[in-house]
Amino acid sequence: MHLINSLIISLIVFLLILSGPSAHGTDKNAFDFDLKNFNGERVTTRALRGKVVLLTFSYAYCSVRCPLITARLSSLDDRLNAPKDVVYLHVSVDPEMDTPERRVKYFNLYGIDAVKDNRWMFVSGQKDELVKLWRFYGIEIKKMEEKRIPEGYYMEYTPKIVIISKGGTIAYEVDFHFMEEDMARKMELII
């Protein structure tokens, strides 16, 4: 009996490893938000209906995770031939410092002209609205003081990408270690 229980537990662990702890679909409705892009334009969940949204979390001074995620999303966009019905939505985790100017400069650093290509958005808003959105998606944020970097701090936060379907449901969630080929296949099915 002990051997059978061990085999069952081993099989369950194996299946969990195969399914991957960082990626899953929920078919749950996306969080209903009303935030502002760097140009002052309102960006709402309703306004994005009919588009596939790759929602991620960033801050303009970020020097590790955010650039990696942005570069990988840009590469994915190239691989998908820049579909017009896909939006890359970055949500601020540092609303006090993420001014509109800094959010535009952030994309410029990565060769993305978000002014011309409105598929790339970096939104922020009132902290209470952002906190609700962060909680909904399980994003934990902590400001870490660090005197050795120019800004004097960095934001420790949960790196996550959420793919929202054209109908406004959460189709897929993944951390920033996603496999590009797998993500491209998922996107092709959703688009």
Describe this structure in words.
The protein has about 190 residues and is α/β, with parallel strands linked by helices. About 35% of the residues lie in helices and about 25% in strands. It has a 5-stranded mixed β-sheet with strand order 5-4-3-8-9. The protein has a two-stranded antiparallel sheet with strand order 1-2. A two-stranded antiparallel ribbon has the order 6-7.
The number of helical elements comes to 5
- The CATH superfamily bears the name Glutaredoxin
CATH architecture: 3-Layer(aba) Sandwich
> How far apart, in Å, are the first and last alpha carbons?
49 Å
Query: Structural class of the helices, strands and pairings?
Result: alpha/beta
Assembly type of the shown chains? Answer: single chain
Computed CA radius of gyration, to the nearest angstrom: 18 Å
Largest sheet: 5 strands, mixed
Question: What is the residue-mean pLDDT, rounded to a whole number?
Answer: 86
Low-pLDDT stretches are: 2-24
Number of self-contained structural domains: 1
What top-tier CATH class fits best?
Alpha Beta
CATH structural fold name: Glutaredoxin
The secondary-structure element order is HEEEHEHEHEEEEH
Name the beta content range: 15-25%
